[in-house]
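Re: beginner question about structure tokens

> Can someone show what the tokenized structure looks like for a real chain? I only ever see the sequence side.

Sure, here's an example I had lying around. Input first:
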Amino acid sequence: MLLREIAHTRTGDKGNRSIISVIAYDLKDFPAIERAVTAERVRAYYADTVKGEVERYVVPHLGALNFVLHDALDGGVTRSLALDAHGKCLSSAILGMAIE
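And the corresponding structure tokens:
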């Protein structure tokens, strides 16, 4: 199944970092999301875009994972010529990740 079937995302940015939250639609699906969507897997998923580390924070009472993607926005909103300088597409793209 694809992550989009059981979760949605929110995103933000700070400088050259993109912050992505993956939020379960239903708390019963959160354990599967927590197992499948690791910092290592997210780093590999965005290997061509994210040049720095990926940190993961677990927010179980909200059924959410929060990821901080360092060196992900080609210098940040005010310095980048990237089409997606805010990283909004990054949060949409992760929903295409296959999970068990």
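Each token stands for a local structural state, so reading them left to right follows the chain. Strands lie at 7-14, 17-24, 54-59, 64-69.
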